Structure to design on (700 residues):
């Protein structure tokens, strides 16, 4: 028999048992649906991460830290011995770890490296408040503006780096600060308040006695420690959809201003002049080999570095684990559906015993009879695969606009790659053929005399 | 020419043996109508299975046009069956969900006949059995007699030299059965194929040129070729079988 005839006969057989075929195919479709959506979500997430990285990080920069736990995995299973030079301890996922920080001395060592073009402390500090005349005081975070950041200006000029004593505000601060539109805000002055730490060493002993007598004076004391600096609004920018989560309301100043503000808030404390990480821009850092060489230089000095690519890999790993979980469930569903196919195919063979017997009597080859049933299984797989991927495409079509609105992202978080979808369907067909193997063998081995025996 | 020589078929082993055929020999000339007659258990079905190569004998040989069946193996046997013989069964075994046309083309597909030739052959075969108006009807919608005619069309479509009919009238009322027999004999005359009918109906057997009576696996009597065979005076259907050559 020609393959085309076998295909037509298989198709006919499937059409004559529509409900049975559909139910079996549905089982496959469920698994396919899960797998297809997982693939789509992982493509979307991958792209989302890539976009976040590319819009927030400069690939020619390295994140440098003095402590391995910042860029890698520290062993948190055992307590570490106390070391006063570490400055402070941090709590990471329940375990207390000491983190060695970078000092200006460290930063200078890195800056002096031949391969390093410039070093920038990645500064973020919580200010007391931002305000302007006659308006509310609002809390916030001020950060040094990184040259690789790329927010969209609604008004004003996004200088890189911003001019001294000028500030870039996200649109979220407009209305609370009493502005009606971005253009009005540009050029206006705002006050940034930071607080000096209370330094008991330099405190007047008489004041200490006062506070002991009247504890309510403590708040006055801390209020008196507030330093207010005036900044000019240089630009208002639109909240970038790909910003790192939690940074939507960051205000940006140039790195020197940020450093000065930070110094005010940390002066006289153990935190002063210490940084978890700095960003080192590498000469010709776009070249992967140059970047590797620079990483080697930095590690020779005893510091640890992380490239954007490595950061990305780290994020992707997290996505990958999530995917693996969903994909496993999808795969389990597919495996479960295999038994459905085997069962359906056995029923089909049983129902068509006479027909098989007749075909064998008329000289149809074993091989062709086997093919007839394997193809029938393949068609069930095809239907299930198309059904599952089709449903997942519809789900993506419905869900994408909703997700887009929810996270304010202009891409699709569920991205279907035609090649992947096609490969998925083909894999399902192969799996179905394998599932149809035993029943098709039963059909091929059927004894025509037995099959054709009348009662 | 079919030569059956010293055919024996023994089922079972040692004490529990059952001899279905015991040293059966005969010759059938080409184009003959043959009846294998006997009660159930006489071995007539076993004989048909062995003659068609579906079963193998314990001893002896079947030779069809110079081919010794037991020497044809696997693919060659399939090919031989696909091109040289076909079957008609008591229960028709037509596929109810398929159209008449689809039922008839099955042997052609198996024999790898090209699609265009397939169509003309199938239509000619359906015409020969008088089912020209039922080409696209599902077999399920045909009457018993029509189903058997469809099965006959399927049997003759690839012009086999040998047609086995296993109780072809067993499931039909006598007048329908009679028409089917007339059709079979008419086609036999027209195409020159050998027709071997397995039956317990002596009346039907009497109309065949050769009768092989089986009893307990042995030939009890054999009617010669000289027996006069009544031939249908009128064509059975509107379409004359003679057109089908």
């Amino acid at each position: 028999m020609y393959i085309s005839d076998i295909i037509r006969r298989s198709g006919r057989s499937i059409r004559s048992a529509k409900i049975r075929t559909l139910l079996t195919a549905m089982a496959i479709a469920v698994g396919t649906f899960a797998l297809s959506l997982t693939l789509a979500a992982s493509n979307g997430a991958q792209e989302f991460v890539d976009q976040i990285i590319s819009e927030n990080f400069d690939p020619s920069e390295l994140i440098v830290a003095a402590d391995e736990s910042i860029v890698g995995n520290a062993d948190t299973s055992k307590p570490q011995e106390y070391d006063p030079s570490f400055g402070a301890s941090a709590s990471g996922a329940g375990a207390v770890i000491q983190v060695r920080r970078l000092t200006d001395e460290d930063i200078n060592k890195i800056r002096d490296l031949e391969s390093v073009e410039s070093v920038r402390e990645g500064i973020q500090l919580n200010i007391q408040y931002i305000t302007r005349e006659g308006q509310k005081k609002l809390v916030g975070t001020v950060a040094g503006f990184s040259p690789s950041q790329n927010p969209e200006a609604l008004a004003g000029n996004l200088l890189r780096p911003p001019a001294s004593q000028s500030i870039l505000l996200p649109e979220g601060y407009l209305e609370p600060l009493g502005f009606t539109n971005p253009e009005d805000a540009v050029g206006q002055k705002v006050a940034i308040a930071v607080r000096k730490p209370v330094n008991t060493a330099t405190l007047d002993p008489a004041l200490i006695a006062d506070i002991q007598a009247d504890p309510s004076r403590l708040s006055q004391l801390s209020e008196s420690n507030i330093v207010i600096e005036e900044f000019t609004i240089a630009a208002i920018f639109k909240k970038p959809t790909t910003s790192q989560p939690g940074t939507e309301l960051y205000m940006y100043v140039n790195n020197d201003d940020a450093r000065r503000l930070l110094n005010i808030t940390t002066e006289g404390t153990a935190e002063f002049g210490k940084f978890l990480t700095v960003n080192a821009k590498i000469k010709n850092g776009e070249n992967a080999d140059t970047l590797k060489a620079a990483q080697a230089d930095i590690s020779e000095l005893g510091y640890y570095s992380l490239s954007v690519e490595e950061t990305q890999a780290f994020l992707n790993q997290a996505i990958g684990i999530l995917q693996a979980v969903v994909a496993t469930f999808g795969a389990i569903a597919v495996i479960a559906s295999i038994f459905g196919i085997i069962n359906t195919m056995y029923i089909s063979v049983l129902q068509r015993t006479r027909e098989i017997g007749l075909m064998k009597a008329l000289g149809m080859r074993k091989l062709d009879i086997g093919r007839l049933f394997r193809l029938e299984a393949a068609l069930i797989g095809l239907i299930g695969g198309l059904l599952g991927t089709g449903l997942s495409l519809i789900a993506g079509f419905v869900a994408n606009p909703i997700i887009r609105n929810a996270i304010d992202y202009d891409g699709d978080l569920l991205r279907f790659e035609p090649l992947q979808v096609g490969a998925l369907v083909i894999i399902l067909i192969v799996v179905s053929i394998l599932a149809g193997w035993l029943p098709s063998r039963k059909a091929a081995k059927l004894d025509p005399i037995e099959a054709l025996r009348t009662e | 020419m079919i030569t059956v020589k010293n055919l024996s078929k023994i089922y079972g082993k040692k004490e529990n043996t059952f001899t279905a055929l015991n040293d059966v020999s005969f010759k059938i000339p080409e184009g003959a109508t043959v009846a294998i007659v006997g009660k159930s258990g006489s071995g007539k079905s076993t004989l048909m299975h062995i003659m068609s190569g579906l079963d193998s004998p314990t001893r002896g040989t079947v030779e069809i046009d110079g081919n010794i069946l037991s020497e044809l193996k696997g693919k060659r046997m399939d090919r031989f069956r696909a091109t040289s013989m076909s079957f008609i069964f008591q229960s028709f075994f037509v596929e109810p969900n398929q159209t008449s046309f689809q039922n008839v083309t099955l042997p052609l597909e198996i024999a790898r006949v090209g699609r265009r030739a397939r169509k003309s052959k199938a239509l000619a075969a359906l015409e020969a059995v008088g089912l020209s108006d039922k080409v696209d009807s599902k077999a399920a919608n045909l009457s018993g007699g029509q189903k058997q005619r469809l099965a006959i069309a399927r049997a003759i479509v690839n012009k086999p030299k040998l047609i086995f009919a296993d109780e072809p009238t067993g499931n039909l009322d006598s007048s329908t059965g009679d028409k089917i027999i007339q059709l079979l004999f008419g086609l036999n005359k027209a195409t020159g194929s050998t027709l071997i009918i397995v039956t317990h109906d002596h009346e039907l057997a009497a109309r065949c040129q050769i009768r092989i009576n089986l009893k307990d696996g042995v030939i009890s009597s054999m009617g010669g070729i000289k027996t006069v065979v009544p031939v249908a005076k009128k064509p059975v259907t509107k379409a004359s079988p003679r057109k089908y050559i």
